[in-house]
Amino acid sequence: MKIHAFIVILVLFSTMNSFCQDSSTHFSKNNFTIKPFNANSIGIGMGVQYERYLDKTNNLSLVIPLNYSIELNQFSNEFNHFGIDVNPGVRFYFVEPRAFNWYLGTSVLLGMGRVSGVVNNWNGDPIEFTSKLFDVCSYVNVGFKGTLEEKFTYNLELGMGMGTRYFNKIVTEPKNIDYLYTGSNTTKLVGQVLVGLGYNF
Fold this sequence. Notes:
This protein has 201 residues and is mainly beta.
């Protein structure tokens, strides 16, 4: 299902690009993007993003995203959970601003989430728990940005890297039951995907 969704997104963006002319655009220094779909080490959700171009030719930029996850990784739907993260980074565009442009970048993610639900202990007794998790990740990203009428942008980005997840002490009910979540302090390969619609100013 995820592969099919990615193919549909790629075809849609390629179709949009066919309506663009391969000409230089106005050198706007700022871009604000709404991300209707965002997936990273924290989970799946949505976000917003500010991008500031740092040089005269707009080949180098600083990106500051803020994301909200409504579905956390490693947890099923029977748990209540949410997450937030910031993922600042830099991008290097291969050519000057155009209607379609590839870029390579890197970013660092700092995120946290909250999980609550009911699990069973070794005796089968139900236990209510609440836990906070923290993620620290580094990514290498590749993507493209298209521009329509010099102002409106569309963006697809893929990233891979390494991340560490830390769980704090889990609070349980009743208080006299000691429950340990075994998924604590894990380091693994992580990925991210973003789809964005933005505006240059």
